[in-house]
Amino acid sequence: MKMKKGYVGVLLTIIAVIVICVSVSFWAFSYALKAETYARYVGLQNILAEKMFKTVHGMETNARNVFDEVAKNIDSPEAVINALKSKTSLAPDVRGYFAAFEPNYFKEKGTWFEPYVHHSDSSEFILTMVGSARHDYTKSDWYVRAKDSKNAFWSEPYYYYDGTNISGHYCTFVEPIFDASGQLACVCGADITFDWLTKELQRIDEQYKYCSLLTKYRMKRQLDFFSVVIKEDGTSIIYPENKKISVKDEEMLQNMAQKKGGTIDMTIDGEPSTLYYGPIEGIDWTLVVVAPKCEIQKPLLLVGIGLLVIAIAGIIVVWIICRRMRYEKGD
Fold first, then answer.
1. Three-state secondary structure call for residue 288
2. For 185, which DSSP code?
3. pLDDT, tens only, 134-158
4. Which DSSP category does 235 fall into?
């Protein structure tokens, strides 16, 4: 015997209510998850950027101590070399310190006088004279910029090659040094290798992958993120092995130029991902946290399946109750 129209109406009404409640619950959860995920990863990006800033700022502080010693001992080449050597123990992770002098500043040293105190194959610092016609530092971008701006800055990343173990990818903190008459005496620099910066970034990543504040209430997510550092042109300069990314989105590039943060969806190595980015204070770089969307959205999938099961179970229960009520009334 078929169910009468009255019971069908009641059943459909209850089913509609169940569907509406489940749909609203799913929408509310998805909205809350989106807000929670944004806060979690933006907070993470801010922490990583701050940690990277502290790393870079620590290098700046140590470099300035060395440069101050050079400025105090600008009277002779030997005093300059001793000044470069005197503070190297403050920052063992710096590859080397140099002082690139104006041509013929010390007449006995000729056109190019650039003592470079640096690491070689051991942990000890050694002295190399790197200025020459082959390496005319006075034409280098960092030298010209320091001479013109008269301010300290971080150089653009570059590759230095001279056929020795000094060759490699570097970034240099540069500061012009002036003598008592106010004339430019030299441009000092502290070299950091990108290998070291990459290891530092990976160390920071690993530290926060297991941080209790980040991993609390994961809701089945693995939080398998990684971070990279990119320049204003969108090119990666510090990144985990095989994780280099290239950003071409105009809005993101514009935000980076204006020192603004934001998010963007991209496909990284075939995997849809969300990028959370923001500036690193004191340097023209942006730190980007890359999180796979499948991990971000995993709680949404699990809750969606759970709500669907609840909805189906509710509909079945209501149908059974309606059937029993109909039979009890003898319909």
1. strand
2. E
3. 889 999 889 999 999 999 998 888 7
4. B
